[in-house]
Amino acid sequence: MADLNVNIGELQMKNPVMTASGTFGYGLEFADFIELARIGGIIVKGTTLHKREGNPYPRMAETPSGMLNAVGLQNKGVHHFVEHIYPSIKDIQTNMIVNVSGSAIEDYVETAAIINELDKISAIELNISCPNVKQGGMAFGVTAKGAEEVVKAVRSVYKKTLIVKLSPNVTDITEIARAVENGGADSVSLINTLLGMAIDAEHRRPILSTVTGGLSGAAVKPIALRMVWQVSKAVKIPVIGMGGIMNWKDAVEFMLAGATAIQIGTANFIDPTVTVKVAESIDDYLNRHNYTSVKDIIGALEV
Ligand SMILES: Cc1cc2nc3c(=O)[nH]c(=O)nc-3n(C[C@H](O)[C@H](O)[C@H](O)COP(=O)(O)O)c2cc1C
C-alpha cells in the first residue's frame, strides 16, 4: 500500500479524498453506505449565522452530464449546528470541516468565531462563491478586494486551518486566489458551481424558481481542471480540487494538475460509495506506477 497521507495547513488527512459541501449532508446520512473513517475529510453543509429557508422549489434540474441547483444555503444556522448537530458528528473518525457562508463580513466573522471553539472541527471552508444567494456569497468571491477583505477579517478570529472556496464565475481566478492567499488563507478549494440556466420550452418558463442556478457534475470537469492547474501555479498554499470528479481517474487528473486533495460532490448522488472507491483506486494507481506516496503525483503533470 502506498502512503496516502496529505496535509492541508495543519490538517492531517489519511487520504486526499473529501466530500464537497452540500452534497453529503453532515456525513451521518451516508454512514449506512460507507465507513466514514475511510475518507480523508467531510465538508458539511453550508452554515450561516442565522437560519436560512433556502430558495423556493423547483431548485434542481438535471442537465446533460450534470445538474443545476439553486438550494440557496438552506440551513438552521450556526447555533443550531453547535447545539444539535455537532454532538452527533464529533466522534466521526475523520476530519470534520464546516463550510461557512454569509451575506456580510460580520456574519462570516461571527460564525467562524463560534466554530473556532469546537474541538472536533479541524478547519473551516469559507464559501465566498455561492451563486445561489441574492446578497453576499458570490459577491465577495468575484473581486480580489472583496475576497481579501473577508478572508483577513475571518483570519483574525479563526485560529485553525482556513480553506477558502473560490468561484469559477470570474474573469481571472488566479487573481482571486492570490488575494485570498494574501488575506491569510491556508488553502484554496475550487471550483464552486458555474452559473447556468435551464428552460422548459413547452411552458416558456425557466425550470428553476431562481431562473439561474449552479452547474455541477461531469460537465464542468474540464473547466475545473484548467482552473486548478492555473491556480496551483499562481499560489504557494495547497489547492483542493473539485468539479465533476466522478471516479478515481478524474481524481488523479486533478492531483496531477496540482491539487493536494480533492472533493467529490454530485457523484455522491449517483453512487454513495464513490468516495471510498476513489481512495482505494488512487492507491492502486500509485502501486501500478511505483509511487510510494500520493504526494509524488501532486503537480506531476508533464507539459
Ligand atoms: C445540491 C448542491 C448543494 C451545494 N451546496 C453547497 C454549499 O452549501 N456550499 C458550497 O460551498 N458549495 C455547495 N455546492 C457546490 C459543491 O460543493 C461543489 O463545489 C460543486 O458541486 C462542484 O463539484 P461536483 O461537480 O463534484 O459536484 C453544492 C452543490 C450541489 C450540487
Automatic annotation (TrEMBL):
Swiss-Prot/TrEMBL keywords: Cytoplasm, Flavoprotein, FMN, NAD, Oxidoreductase, Pyrimidine biosynthesis
Highest taxon of source? Bacteria
Any one GO BP annotation for this protein: 'de novo' UMP biosynthetic process
Q: Which residues does the Swiss-Prot or TrEMBL record annotate as the active site? A: 130
Matching entries from PROSITE patterns are given as: DHODEHASE_1, DHODEHASE_2
Which part of the chain is the Dihydroorotate dehydrogenase catalytic domain? Answer: 4-285
The UniProt record gives the binding positions of substrate as 45, 69-73, 127, 192-193
Q: Does the keyword Disulfide bond apply?
A: no
Q: Which reaction does it catalyse?
A: (S)-dihydroorotate + NAD(+) = orotate + NADH + H(+); (S)-dihydroorotate + A = orotate + AH2
Cite the Pfam families for this sequence. Answer: DHO_dh
SUPFAM superfamilies for the chain: FMN-linked oxidoreductases
Tell me the HAMAP family matching this sequence. DHO_dh_type1 (MF_00224)
- Summarize subunit and interaction data from the UniProt record for this chain: Heterotetramer of 2 PyrK and 2 PyrD type B subunits.
Protein function: Catalyzes the conversion of dihydroorotate to orotate.
Name the chain's protein: Dihydroorotate dehydrogenase
What would be the name of the gene that encodes this protein?
A: pyrD
